Each structure stands twice: as structure tokens, then as C-alpha cells.
Amino acid sequence: MKIAVYGDFCLDSYWIMDERGSEVSIETGLQAQAVTRHYYTPGGAANVVANLSALKPAGIRVIGTIGDDMQGRELRSQLENLGAETTALFIQKEHFNTYSYLKRIIDGKEEPRIDFGVYNERSDETDQKLLAAIEQALQESDALIFNQQVTGSINNEHFIDQANALFARYSDKIVMLDSRHFNDRFENTYLKCNDREIASLNGELVNPGDNVPITEVKKYGRAVYEKYKKPVFVTCGERGIIAFDQTGAREVHGIQLKSKLDTVGAGDTAISAITLCLAAGFPSVEAATFGNFAAAVTVQKLYTTGTANAREILSVSQDPDFIYNADLAENERSAVFLQDTEVELCEPGVLEKLGQIRYAVFDHDGTISSLRQGWEEIMEPVMMKAILGDHYNTIDANAFHKVLGQVKEFIHKTTGIQTIYQMEGLVNLVREAGYVPEQDILDKFQYKALYNDGLMEMVIKRMEKLAAGELGQEDYTMKGAVAFLQELKERGVTMYLASGTDAEDVKHEAEMLGYAHLFDGGIYGALKDYTKFSKKMIIEKIIKDNNLNGNELAVFGDGPDEIREGRRAGGIAVGITSNEVQRFGHNPAKRPRLVKAGAHLLIPDFSQYKKLITLLFQENVKYADA
């Protein structure tokens, strides 16, 4: 495909500052600031070009304006190195500086930006050159991306009128519009915008940072499509992309990513990938799906407006962890409960799948057992001391709480996965933070040993009380859990226990608590060769070995990992929002992550196990008031 890009071509400048090299100027007496490293990347429409280039189209043509300055020369050079044809990148010598954004990074944090080109005024002569180049591109290219991001970059009213005249004349061509300030002024274009912009196009006032509910986005997107009859693509952050065309509104789920994210430039990645797919003849929903995967690549690239190549997109598209019902996850007031129960119905369509359950997989800790309740409080200080090293007791409060927030978020996202993978993530956190010298960073096995030492000290004390008869099964299990297991056993359900905890520990704890014999399918946990076990592997093996349809399997857990894998396999995913301290009742902190992981149903505990059995096996169920 041959793609043309019109827009505001910018240069992003990154200066990595290091105060250790700073000195006081002899001439001025002022503190100098030292730059340890600096680099420059394409920004604005130039980043669109970079993203196109990463996917290797047949040709890229740029149409825009730069100043007669150092930044302009660097930008042209970078665009040409990306394989773009730059004869329509016009230099305006007066009243125009190349758009450039200087970003200083201090201790990993971006300081307030320094902007060049804010007061540019494009001349009529430049506009006419641009319009002529746009027409040539409409004649010779497969698609045109029309990208406008800078306030005031279109300063002549007749430029919009003349561009619209061209788009009407070539109305059969793909013109993908992405304009921060003029989306409502252009016609005969496809549209890529975000959820707030689509609301604004429908006359709604939306504050920066607000999330527009998906139901509203679908209404607004449909209205814009019906007005112009050209496909519309609305990006909704972690909630994914919604595509609108003659087939209706098609939702592409967002992707759950566990690493630290930088969303700068994700929109440029999406529009590049979507436009290439459309030019190649793919339907809107497939283009949106591809754009969604591409954006998931770039948001994981920090401190740069990154790109996504074919290998990276294929990698992130392999068994992605989708985000489901993001609006419902963040708004518990929208919860819908089945009549006379504490069962929250997250996915109404699941009701048609119930009644066929023959196999069940259970997570252990927080789902059935509370023996390890409080593991987060042990992992958190282990991670903090690992990340901060010798700075743990001396670092200032702001920096300490910043790291603490990152640790809490990481634990929140990784609940339910094998400990070794959490420790693998910890190694990355230690390295990224930069407080610990490289030679002093431990490996994932060493960090796991430190964590396990603290955890097992707590667990052993509880096991001793259990063995001594000072506390019983009911003191270390979730309300109704064992009775529910027995009900499933009576109905001939084959049950499996699968935990991220080490296998021998899981088996021992289940035996001590008196229900190991109920898991006739087997008890599984983490192995020394951690690559040989995962909840995904267990679930896939059950389905393959027993030739199951998805709805013959139910998965129960309080962590997103097992819920996500149950959903992926087509099973019935039941999330447990357990309050592990009191062993019954709802923990609101668990609900959002379980909903996003794809839970069909949510329960706080198993105290209503008889009603749950009736629901799952469709025994005289009434849904009238659901």
C-alpha cells in the first residue's frame, strides 16, 4: 500500500538529566543542569510516519511544513531515514519554527515540557502548496491520513474549505481524519477519534481525563456514522476500540498489560495500523483489531513515542488478556444481581450456557482457603526493600510513596499468577527504579526465597494451631466453600485444585484442611521448573483430555489469572470477591479486576451455595427480576 500523511510534523526531544554532573556557573552564579544523554524522535504526524514505516508499506509520502532551522533539518533527515518521500515537506522561512517538544527526564519523571512553534502562522502560499500536494496524493496513493494536533496549525479558514472540496471530488478515496481541533469541520472522511472527542462531536461537554461510558460512545459513534456514512473508529484507552460502519458498532476489547505503560503516541500507532488495513481491503472490525494490538505494543515502550513492527504485533496478539466490561468494573452501582441472591450477573449471555457443568477448576488461596491471608502484606515490604536497597530508610517520603504505589499496582495486577512470575516482574521493577546497582540485583529465585521465608513463617504458625485443634477447618476456609465442594461431588463433577503456590504446599494445606480427597481430578501448584505449570495449562489439558465443550467447565477464583483463563477457554468463569479476613462477605477491591478479567458471575463467598448450585445446574431457576 502507498500511504500519504498530511499533518503537523514535530520533533520530540528527550534530555535525560543528572544532577550529579551539575555545577554552579562561574559567569552567572546560577546552578547549571547537566544532560547525561539526549535523543530525538519523530512526533505528531511524523510519529504516524514512523509507525507506518515499521509495517513496511510500499510507499510513504509526507505533506507538511517545517521551519528553516536545526529541528527541521533533523526532522527531515529522520523522515527520510524512515523511507518517506519528503518533497512535499515545505520549508516556510518566516513566521514558522519547526514544531518541537523538549522533554526533560529527571529521576525517571518527565518535567514540564518546553514547546517550540506555538506562535507559527502558515502563509497562504504554503497552504496552496499543501493543497496541491494533497490532491496529488489523493490521485496516486491508496489512502491519506489527515492528522492535525497543534493548536492554531490551521490558521487560514479557506484551507479547510479547499480541503473539503478535494475530499468531495475524491470521495471514493480513503481519507482518515484525526484532528484535535477540527473534527467537526471536515467532510467525506473516515474518522479516528477518542471517546471524549466523539462525545464533543455530539454536543456534549466532557472534561479532560473523563471516561465516556461505552454505551454512550456507541450512541455517539453511530450518530456520526449516520451523518457522514464513512467508517468511524473510536479509541477508548484500556477499554479498546469501537468501529462503526454499515454493519453496526463492533467492539474490540482492550488488552490487560502488566508492565509499566506510557500511552503517548498510542493514537498514532492505532491510526497507522487501521489505515493500512483499510487500504489493503480489510473490514473495519479487523482493521480495529489490528490497530488495537499495535497500540498494545507501543504503550509498553517508555520515554519514547514508540512504533510497532510485525513481529511485535504478532507476539502481543498471541493469547492476549482482554479487558471485559471496563465500565461495569469501575462502577459498582451498575451491578445487577439475580433475584434473592448475592450473585452478580456480569454477562447476561452466560445464563444460556448454564446447566452442563461436568468439570470444575478452583483456585485455592482466597477462594477456598484463608491460610495465606495477608500474603500481600508480606510481599509488599519484600518488594519495597528489594527496589530501594540501601535507600529504603533514607529516601524522601514522596519518592517512597511513588514506589509504593507502583508496587501495590503490580501486586494488584498479578494476583493469582505463579510467585516466580511475580518475582520476575520484581527484577524488572528493581532495574527500572535504578536505586540498586546492577551487580547487587538478585535473580527471581533469590527474591522468591526471601518472600517465601516471610510467608511460610506466618503459614506455619497457623498450621500449628490447626494441628493442635486450637482452630478448625471453618476458621481457615471461606464460608460455605467445603459444603459447595461436597455438593459438586454429589453431582458427579470432577474437580481440580490449581494454585500459584508451590505444589507440595498446596497439597499439604488441602490435606490439613480436610478436603484434598474431593479433588479427584488432581491438586496442582507451582513446580521447580515453573514453565511446566500454569492455570492455563491445566484448563487446556482438562478440555483436551475430556473433549469438553466450554460450558461443561466452570472455573472459580478470586484472582484475575484463573478467571481470565476460564473465560478464554469458553468456560463458566465465577469470580469470588472474598473478604479473607472475616472469611465471608464482599471485598470491593477484588471486584474491578475480576470483572475486567472476564467473570461471568461474581459471588462474595459460598454462603449461598445452595442457590449457586441451583443456578449453575439450572434447577428451577427464575430470572424474572434479574
UniProtKB/TrEMBL annotation:
**Keywords, comma-separated and alphabetical:** Kinase, Transferase
Highest taxon above the source species: Bacteria
* InterPro entries the record matches: Carboh/pur_kinase_PfkB_CS, HAD-like_sf, HAD_sf, PfkB_dom, Ribokinase-like
Q: Which residues form the Carbohydrate kinase PfkB domain?
A: 5-306
Species of origin reads Dyadobacter chenhuakuii
The secretion signal range is none
Q: What is the lineage of its organism?
A: Bacteria, Pseudomonadati, Bacteroidota, Cytophagia, Cytophagales
Q: What's a single GO MF annotation on this record?
A: kinase activity
- Its recorded name reads PfkB family carbohydrate kinase
